[in-house]
Write a structure and sequence with these properties.
5-stranded parallel β-sheet; elongated; 9 helices; Rossmann fold
Length: about 240
């Protein structure tokens, strides 16, 4: 019999314990864990196998397709130090602090840094200009103390995410052309993935639901969620709560 998601009270520790959400419990940890998106997975493997200092990528696709999670998997695959900048936390001070850190902070892992920039299409224009100046500097950072330049190319990979489709000629995009030209766009789409997502939900149901529980219509769950895996898992949690 499987374990349904629940909130329990631990009488021994007198503390409330919270079960993981399905989205977190079944989140891909490696590139190979992802469902479908074969082209994006191939490119992600190439980034890990042959990382290029100061390279910048843009994962573009609908919400729930795994853009942020794939960036995290790349960082894990490189054993890199991760610097995560959500859109709401993006600021000149944050970016400059990270930029200095990748030059002067010794990382005990592989020596690589991954900067994850979520929803960079929402970043202010002055922050986009700051990123342009960083990418155009080819790794040179002014030393504020001595007033000289350090012409080293740090082992850092920049990965942005967006829900827009700048890779399509007729796609919606608010990106400045110069800004976009510095980014290698990697589309991540759930198109055509409905059967694979339904199979994934079926596997999770078999793992989590009681044996006697009647399964829902997995194909319908996927269709109602428009192939959004995160939404599918949230809807599946609702189904599990009723068994």
């Amino acid at each position: 019999m499987g374990n349904t998601p629940k909130i329990g009270f631990d009488t021994q520790s007198a503390a409330v314990s919270y079960a993981q959400s399905l989205a977190e419990k079944y989140r891909p940890r490696t590139i190979d864990d992802f469902i479908g998106v074969d082209d994006a997975k191939k490119k992600a493997h190439a980034i890990i196998k042959r990382p290029v200092p100061m390279s910048a990528f843009l994962f573009a696709g609908d919400s729930g397709t795994g853009k942020t999670t794939m960036a995290l998997a790349i960082a894990a695959g490189l054993n890199a130090q991760l610097h995560h900048v959500p859109a709401r936390a993006a600021s000149k001070e944050t970016i400059e602090s990270i930029w200095e850190s990748v030059h002067y902070t010794t990382w005990t892992g592989s020596g690589w840094h991954v900067v994850l920039m979520d929803e960079i299409d929402l970043w202010r224009s002055d922050l986009q200009q700051l990123m342009l100046s960083i990418w155009d500097s080819m790794g040179s950072l002014p030393n504020a103390m001595f007033g000289d330049w350090q012409p080293s190319a740090p082992q850092v990979i920049w990965i942005g995410t967006t829900n827009q489709e700048p890779h399509k000629s007729n796609g919606n995009s608010s990106f400045d052309k110069r800004y976009l030209s510095r980014l290698r766009v990697i589309p991540i789409s759930s198109y055509g993935m409905a059967p694979a997502i339904a199979d994934h939900l079926r596997f999770i149901w078999a793992s989590e639901a009681p044996e006697e529980a009647a399964p829902p219509d997995f194909t319908k769950l996927v269709k109602n969620a428009n192939n959004n895996v995160s939404n599918c898992l949230m809807n599946l949690e609702l189904e599990l709560m009723e068994v």
